[in-house]
Amino acid sequence: IKRKVTPAALRVIRLKPGRDFTVMADLAHSVGWKHKELLKKLEEKRKVKADAFYEKKKARMAIRAKAEKECETELAGVNKVLAASGY
After folding, report:
1. Rounded CA gap, 52 and 60, in Å?
2. 17 has a pLDDT exceeding 80
3. If you average pLDDT over residues 5-30, what whole number do you get?
4. What is the pLDDT of residue 38?
5. What's the pLDDT score for residue 3?
6. What CA–CA distance (Å, rounded) separates 44 from 3?
7. Distance of CA 8 to CAs 14, 24, 84, Å?
8. DSSP string, the chain
9. What is the mean pLDDT of residues 16-29?
10. What is the largest CA-CA distance in the chain?
């Protein structure tokens, strides 16, 4: 599952400065939910995987940028046609 950010739901955008807020896991734990530690462990695991994914993504992007730079002269004609078409 790809994680996405919904800007309209971000706390820093939606809440006025100085307003109180809570984290759902803390709220649920305070009323008897027993899985706070499990959630914390899974979140740490997700962060490790996300870091590994991002490092691979950066490497792929660097390789792609290098390849595009090397083929820039060969693709000049194609890029001109695409630019005329609005791409």
Report:
1. 13
2. yes
3. 90
4. 92
5. 76
6. 15
7. 7, 18, 35
8. ------GGG-HHHHSPTT-----HHHHHHHTT---HHHHHHHHHHHHHHHHHHHHHHHHHHHHHHHHHHHTTTTTHHHHHHHHHHT-
9. 90
10. 66
